[in-house]
């Protein structure tokens, strides 16, 4: 009888040990991901990688669950020590402004992937790359397909209109800045059937003179920065711009869906399209 009890206790210990080993193995099998850019975070969540995300930048605010993730510093100055302490398997960064921190992390033998798309085709490729690296290949393909469907819907609606509106996108007022060829917003204007009045400027994001805006007479003006500057109707010479005279000036679009290269750009394209044609003479309804 005593032997049976000992055997039973020993069996229980082995069972508990095996359970503990399974739990530890299960936890270690979950990829640990850090995102240093809001756009990357949105892609990761859209692919269903909520559990795998262990750290994000302080600017990552969408979806809502992103706000509850561990913060690793702001976009420009991530905390490298914090990043290392979270023991990531992979870090998704952005280009340009984050180039220096990317180099430092790579010097520390961290697995860093830079995601810096400049147009929709590159974005789709990057989404598929993220899916491949995180075991979400099918989810990535589905996401790309959904975005392409949304874009195709807009291109079909554009064919219903006779107008080709001239558009000015204001991303900053002091100094006055806009977007040109090579930017996502320029591509979005073209997809939505419009003409970017600043499309020939030398850089994707650059300064523009008020005189040039006035001379180009845009039909639609979209403001993506906080409207805490001088009312556009009170700017000298702007009162004769068609967009101003016809009340086709809009600052009501969430800038995140226009400037973050992620899944919500398709939503931003739709909102841009609606405002480009709102109030203009048309032969069809939006």
Describe the structure concisely.
With 286 residues, the chain is of the alpha/beta class. It has helices at 2-29, 38-46, 80-85, 99-107, 120-134, 137-158, 184-191, 210-216, 242-245, 256-259, 265-277, and strands at 33-35, 53-56, 90-93, 112-114, 166-170, 177-179, 195-196, 205-207, 220-223, 249-250. β1 (33-35), α2 and β2 form a beta-alpha-beta unit.
SS-based class: alpha/beta
CATH topology category name of the largest domain = Rossmann fold
Treating each run of at least 4 consecutive H or I residues as one helix, how many helices? 11
Compressed to H and E, one letter per element, the order equals HEHEHEHEHHEEHEEHEHEHH
Distance between the termini: 83 Å
Strand count, sense and barrel status of the largest sheet are: 4 strands, parallel
Which CATH top level class of the largest domain fits? Alpha Beta
CATH superfamily of the largest domain: Nitrogenase molybdenum iron protein domain
| Total number of domains | 2
Segments where pLDDT lies below 50 for 5+ residues?
A: 1-28
Sequence of strands across the biggest β-sheet = 2-1-3-4
Q: Name the helicity range.
A: 40-55%
Backbone CA Rg: 25 Å
Give the helix/strand layout.
Layout: H1 2-29, E1 33-35, H2 38-46, E2 53-56, H3 80-85, E3 90-93, H4 99-107, E4 112-114, H5 120-134, H6 137-158, E5 166-170, E6 177-179, H7 184-191, E7 195-196, E8 205-207, H8 210-216, E9 220-223, H9 242-245, E10 249-250, H10 256-259, H11 265-277
Parallel strand pairs: 1-2, 1-3, 3-4, 5-7, 5-9, 9-10
Antiparallel strand pairs: 6-8
Helix pairs in contact: 5-6, 6-11
